[in-house]
Amino acid sequence: MSNELIALGVEGLGLDLTPENLANLELFLQEMHRWNRVHNLTAIDNEQDSIRLHLIDSITVLPIMRHYLKIQSPQIADLGSGGGLPAIPIAILQPSWHLTLIEAVRKKTAFLQHIRGKLGLKNIEVLSERAEAVAKARPGQFDAVISRAFSSLTQFLDLSLPLLRPGGLVFAMKGKRADEELKAVCIDSWQLLADESLHIPNLAVERRLLVLSPMRKLPLSAQH
Ligand SMILES: C[S@@+](CC[C@H](N)C(=O)[O-])C[C@H]1O[C@@H](n2cnc3c(N)ncnc32)[C@H](O)[C@@H]1O
């Protein structure tokens, strides 16, 4: 695996990556492969697929997130982070954003802590907990919640709602079943702000990023 190999895919995304960014992304992938061999962190073991499917997929969301997250240092929760996607690549490329990685399986959070130290990522925290528990323990603390391959859209929205600050956003990384999943979402409770197609260089798979915001119900006294 080389910097050039990663650059081949990320060039097409229009992100201005520094040599340090590329070195850190590469180190992350190397560590993932190393831990995968021992702990089976992810299902895909082929290096080329891994680069495209995991890493590139995770950073294609960045331009859209940048567009919607206007504040300087948003607090973002990644539910069901697994081996660190999409949170680790985002944290590498956006050092001013703070990411909370929530993952229930301990061997995975051990890997995430290892990555935090290895890459010197000061802008992430790793919680070895179920998202349901964090939703209760830390209500209203996040400007955004994101997930990739975590749960159904409706379950993800239900879990995200208590975590969000007023004005907070949900970013749902989805594949071709997005339309079907959107039909199940209560339109009185959620507004779909964007449904963006993600283009992954050299790979013909349908990937989409849905951006949603909760409709806050007015208290009865404020309704006419
Ligand atoms: C299919 S993996 C996806 C991991 C990563 N987001 C990715 O895209 O590679 C789903 C992850 O969610 C975690 N998970 C499932 N339900 C969870 C919950 N309620 N709270 C926290 N983590 C959960 C699982 O342990 C697993 O690591």
From TrEMBL:
Signal peptide: none annotated. Pfam families: GidB. Belongs to the methyltransferase superfamily. RNA methyltransferase RsmG family. It comes from Polynucleobacter antarcticus. One of its GO terms (molecular function) is rRNA (guanine-N7-)-methyltransferase activity. S-adenosyl-L-methionine binds at G80, L85, A131, E132, R148. This is Ribosomal RNA small subunit methyltransferase G. Keywords: Cytoplasm, Methyltransferase, rRNA processing, S-adenosyl-L-methionine, Transferase. Specifically methylates the N7 position of guanine in position 527 of 16S rRNA. It is an enzyme of class 2 (transferase). Its EC number is 2.1.1.170. It catalyses: guanosine(527) in 16S rRNA + S-adenosyl-L-methionine = N(7)-methylguanosine(527) in 16S rRNA + S-adenosyl-L-homocysteine. InterPro entries: rRNA_ssu_MeTfrase_G, SAM-dependent_MTases_sf. It is found in: Cytoplasm. GO terms for cellular component: cytosol.
